[in-house]
Specification:
The complex is a heterodimer of chains A (373) and B (602).
Chain A lengths: L10 E12 L5 E2 L6 E2 L4 E7 L3 E5 H5 L17 E2 L4 E4 L10 E3 L4 E6 L5 E5 L3 E6 L4 E7 L3 E12 L2 E3 L2 E8 L7 E2 L11 E4 L3 E2 L1 H10 L3 E7 L1 H8 L7 E2 L7 E8 L6 H9 L4 E5 L2 E2 L8 E5 L21 E4 L8 E6 L5 E2 L5 E2 L1 E6 L4 E5 L3 E3 L3
Parallel strand pairs in A: 15-17, 16-18, 17-19, 19-21
Antiparallel strand pairs in A: 1-13, 2-4, 3-12, 4-11, 5-10, 6-9, 7-8, 9-10, 12-13, 13-24, 14-21, 15-22, 20-23, 22-24, 25-26, 25-31, 26-29, 27-28, 29-30
Chain B lengths: L7 E7 L3 E10 L2 E11 L9 H16 L23 E6 L5 E7 L5 H11 L2 E8 L6 H11 L3 E4 L9 H13 L12 E4 L6 H8 L4 E4 L13 H15 L6 H7 L5 E2 H16 L3 E6 L4 E7 L2 E7 L8 H8 L1 H5 L8 H13 L8 H25 L33 E5 L1 H4 L4 H12 L3 E8 L4 H10 L1 H12 E9 L10 E9 L4 E7 L2 E5 L6 E8 L13 E6 L4 E6 L10 H14 L7
Helix pairs in contact in B: 3-4, 4-5, 8-15, 9-12, 12-14, 15-16
Classes of the chains: A mainly beta (373), B alpha/beta (602).
């Protein structure tokens, strides 16, 4: 039987989600294997080395680099307070001394007689890693972090803004093609993650921030509004560190695009449940897509847990991801082997599909994505 | 297996968006391309293993060639060929996962800093930043920058042999203080290559030896007047394989499958471009426009230069092209009006779903407009990088007094350019070859006579790596199946003051004795058919203010080569401007596209 590989976003009602939660540097793991954790729990912590300052002692004392050792008042590893003297000349009969003072509170990391420089480091910065999702500690990476597992509804978005947030889920738009407007957002949505339909308007997103909504999940977002919202035209899709007071997960793309029925129904079914979302997107080296994780309360991981992508076959559900008919859902009818000439005159491998409204189309295979079921 | 026994070769290129596979076979004693297959590159979860994309592309090759190449479980390549199954040799290049991302450092930004940049680029790397003693940043800012960027590798250079050591040691101290971590694989040390003053090697070892994976090679700028980039380039490629690739998702597996080392894609394309220049004795500019990056190569005065524009490309980086070039510059090439909001959404949707292809004709036109701008911006960057050595003393005679040039002038002179080579999906796979010719002309604005060529199906990377192990096969396929001759562009310099006024008269004498005469007017494009393999003598009489290379209004004689498109007279002027009135612009752009029969229904 003909089949083809095509990438697709993961949208599954129940799957085993595993999350590595690692420190940026080695540190201390604060939980043990088998522990049940909440999204807010601290699972590992460490101290990041402080910022480094360099002071050129030789220049400041007008001496040769190799001479600095004769004038040092501190040695490598010593702690210093701001304005402590690091090096000092003997002066003339004790007068007219020149000295070099520490610009920071911290420690002396290195003293170089080759360049005459001192490297000073500020005190360490504490860093904590949270669990991010409710679940169970599945594995420990000694001094690095943990692996958390949870059975959850899992939805990958296509693009997002903002980092990890957690809150109770509320579906605000009445249907997957409804636009999330300013008036839809109420003070009761504070602290929640809300769900819209085909688009969130710029005004609605601003109101969501104003009332304290933690996150928005929506089908589409206008690229022009994104530019206005960020204050710059996003060139390369690397996001997640924006501090806009909200996390946005876009499930379909830019513009007004109806949220996939399946996505909407899954979110609707999970209304009121604790949900973790992350808008971080990196569409290049080691691609990262935004995600929605809704942990399910189940004692054991049952056999329905979803695994893997089996490629595109006749009968596979797909979504059209480029004009014409962008956003529509269809079933694969046929996978012709030979390349076909399309309207733009490009000769490409195609797929025959039938949309839910009964429309029969032949499109490039690259312009559809599998909807995992 | 000896080279003479090899009859079937599989070569792949793992691009950032698409993995391309080609099958080459020896038939009637000649190596020819048989089929080509492709599949999306698999660096995205849940697969996150580049090998899967390779196997998918090979499986398409299998299907099209009608014979088995992969093992029954589809997880490996059958080698050597047996009973018509499998291949004898498998090689690959890769730029997936963002390619090789480097930081370079030199004492003086415009001297050793630039030499280090050229060395890194020549090895196929993307240069993320250049650290220099005089770059205006404070030490702690440099340290933060190193930590933030997390490069795959750092190249440290600076100081001429026998010169002062303290500056380069100070740079090493900054790198040591940053204690940089590698981008891929938390558990391994970051490779740092030292290619500076040889007298400082002991101090560099002392400063960096215990903190990073330090490697030392010859000084890349041993004296002010000379560069010695090859040892550094070779070391970079070696370290790339040993340290970086082995930690990228799926590469250890891919490395097991290949018979030769995996090469960075731009390095392989650069090798092929140099080979063309050397074999044909031509000055060459080549461009490889990919999904994430655009690489530009040039050989002028026998000097090879390469630049990588890391954020200009047709999928992952298309939104950046849009942001940098601006809406107006993109839309000037589009012969219809579009709603700005709609256009922005379409561009961003391409960025987030990089593997999609334009189905509608209008979408193809917009993508080709973006390609023109991506190529133009990349070529501007290339020109500023392909320069002579800075900081050297020049000898001048009294005759040079009125024609003084600065050191570090660009080597790229379009009037001296013989051949323009295009490669990359948008150029190689344009539905009509005229579109490729037009994109090359519009973005590079060649002057005088310039031959236009394109990589037929985007296989230069694979041939570049193949040339390392089987030059005969690579050259055979290159000559017969890879390089497509589009034609020759005839473009005088000079500004067109009035559309429609005569710019030049020409007399074209074909090999069969046919003589064609004509006049070409300002603001126009004209095509004269001249078939592939045909050459003709041309005599051009440019009007006053227009220059074909011999001076304004001076006659010019030369030889032109034919191609699929033919001889293209571009008398739009250099530089040329678009009308400010939109309706007039649309009319003019349509007339150009019509002259070349660029799109259906115009």
């Amino acid at each position: 039987m003909a089949s083809a590989y095509t990438p697709g976003l993961k949208i599954v009602s129940k799957t085993l989600v595993e999350k590595d939660r690692k420190l940026p540097l080695l540190g201390e793991v604060r939980v043990k294997k088998g522990d049940k954790v909440k999204a807010e729990s601290v699972v590992a912590s460490t101290n990041l080395p402080g910022n480094v300052f360099m002071v050129n002692i030789a220049n400041l004392l007008s001496i040769e680099p190799h001479e600095i050792k004769d004038f040092l008042k501190k040695k490598e590893g010593d702690r210093v307070e701001k304005d402590d003297i690091i090096a000092e000349t003997t002066g003339f009969f004790g007068f007219f001394k020149s000295c070099v003072r520490s610009p920071i509170k911290g420690s002396i990391e290195n003293l170089s007689t080759a360049t005459g420089q001192a490297v000073l480091r500020e005190p360490p910065i504490p860093v904590e890693v949270h669990a991010y999702v409710d679940g169970e500690i599945d594995d420990i990476y000694p001094n690095e972090g943990v692996k958390i597992k949870t059975t959850a509804t899992y939805i990958q978005g296509i693009f997002g803004i903002g980092g990890e947030v957690t809150g109770l889920l509320e579906v605000v738009s009445s249907s997957p093609d409804a636009v999330l407007e300013k008036d839809d957002i109420k003070p009761v949505h504070a602290g929640k993650i809300i769900v819209g339909g085909s688009l969130v308007t710029a005004e609605a997103l601003q109101k969501a921030i104003d009332v304290g909504v933690r996150g928005v999940i929506v089908g589409g977002y206008d690229a022009h509004d994104l530019k206005e919202f960020l204050g710059y035209d996003l060139g390369v899709a690397i996001t997640g560190t924006e501090e806009k007071g909200i996390t946005l997960v876009v499930t379909e793309g830019f513009g007004k695009i109806q949220m996939a029925h399946k996505t909407y129904e899954l979110l609707k079914a999970a209304e009121g449940m604790k949900t973790s979302i992350n808008g971080a997107t990196q569409i290049r080296a080691g691609v990262i897509r935004p995600e929605v994780i809704i942990p399910l309360i189940v004692e054991a991981h049952d056999e329905q847990v979803h695994q893997g992508n089996n490629g595109m076959l006749v009968g596979t559900s797909v979504r059209i991801i480029r004009q014409p008919h962008f956003g529509e859902v269809a079933k694969v009818v046929n996978l012709p082997e030979k390349p076909v000439v399309i309207e733009s005159e490009a000769k490409v491998r195609v797929v025959d599909i039938e949309t839910t409204s009964g429309l029969k189309l032949t499109l490039p295979r690259a312009n559809v994505e599998i909807i995992e079921e | 297996m000896s080279k003479t026994e090899i009859t079937s070769i599989l070569a792949t290129d793992c691009g950032s968006t698409t993995t391309k596979a080609i099958l080459i076979e020896k038939r009637d004693n000649v190596f020819r391309l048989v089929v080509r297959g492709e599949a999306p590159t698999t660096v995205e979860a849940p697969v996150e293993d580049v090998t899967q994309g390779v196997l998918n592309a090979v499986s398409e090759v299998q299907e099209l060639a009608g014979r088995q190449i992969l093992t029954d479980d589809g997880k490996a390549i059958i080698k050597p060929i047996k009973d018509g199954k499998g291949v004898d040799l498998y090689v690959s290049t890769s730029s997936a996962g963002g390619g090789l991302q480097m930081m370079v450092s030199g004492v003086v930004k415009t001297m050793s800093g630039e030499s280090a940049t050229r060395a890194a680029l020549g090895a196929g790397a993307i240069v993320m930043d250049v650290l220099a003693t005089n770059d205006g940043r404070l030490p702690h800012q440099k340290i933060q920058r190193i930590r933030h960027l997390r490069p795959d590798m750092i190249l440290l250079s600076g100081g001429v042999d026998g010169g002062t050591k303290s500056h380069v040691i100070a740079l090493a101290e900054i790198i040591a203080a940053a204690s940089p971590k590698a981008r891929l694989g938390a558990g391994y040390e970051l490779p740092v290559l030292y290619a500076g003053n040889k007298d400082a090697q002991a101090e560099i070892k002392e400063t960096l030896g215990t903190k990073v994976a330090l490697d030392i090679t010859d000084n890349l700028r041993p004296s002010m007047e000379s560069e010695n980039l090859m040892p550094t380039r070779q070391k970079i490629q070696h370290l790339f394989l040993e340290h970086v690739m082995s930690h990228a998702p799926g590469y250890p597996h891919l490395m097991e499958l290949t018979d030769e080392d995996i090469m960075p894609t731009p390095g392989a394309v650069g090798d092929i471009m140099q080979l063309i220049s050397r074999k044909k004795g031509l000055t060459v500019v080549g461009a490889d426009i990919g999904g994430a990056t655009t690489d530009v190569f040039s050989v002028f005065q026998g000097i090879y230069n390469k630049s990588v524009s890391a954020n200009y490309g047709m999928s992952y980086s298309i939104s950046n092209v849009f942001a940098e070039a601006g809406l107006e510059n993109i839309m000037r090439w589009v012969p219809f009006e579009m709603d700005e909001r709609d256009l922005r959404n379409r561009v961003k949707n391409k960025m987030i779903r990089p593997t999609t292809i334009p189905y509608l004709l209008e979408e193809l036109m917009v993508e080709q407009a973006c390609a023109r701008e991506a190529l133009r911006l990349s070529f501007d960057q290339h020109r500023s990088l392909a320069v002579g050595l800075k900081g050297i003393q020049q000898e001048r005679t009294i005759g040079d007094v009125f024609e003084q040039t600065m050191t570090g002038e660009t080597l790229v002179n379009l009037k001296d350019l013989n051949m323009l080579i295009g490669s990359g999906g948008v150029l190689s796979h344009a539905p009509r070859r005229q579109q490729t010719a037009m994109m090359l002309i519009d973005s590079f604005l060649p002057e005088g006579l310039t031959q236009l060529t394109v990589d037929s199906i985007f296989m230069m990377p694979q041939l570049g790596v193949l040339a390392k192990v089987h030059e005969e096969a690579a050259l055979s396929v290159f000559e017969r199946d890879c390089l497509i001759y589009l034609g020759t562009c005839v473009a005088p310099t000079g500004i067109v003051k009035k559309t429609g006024e005569a710019v030049l008269d020409y007399v074209l004498t074909k090999q069969n004795g046919d003589v064609l005469k004509g006049t070409v007017n300002g603001g126009e494009l004209n095509v004269v058919k001249l078939a592939v393999g045909e050459t003709a003598k041309i005599v051009i009489h440019p009007k006053r203010h227009y220059d074909m290379g011999n001076g304004p209004g001076k006659d010019f004689e030369g030889e032109v080569s034919g191609g699929i498109v033919g001889l293209i007279f571009d008398t739009r002027g250099r530089p040329f401007k678009f009308p400010t009135d939109n309706a007039e612009r649309v009319k003019l752009v349509k007339s150009w596209y019509k002259a070349l029969d660029l799109y259906p229904g115009l």
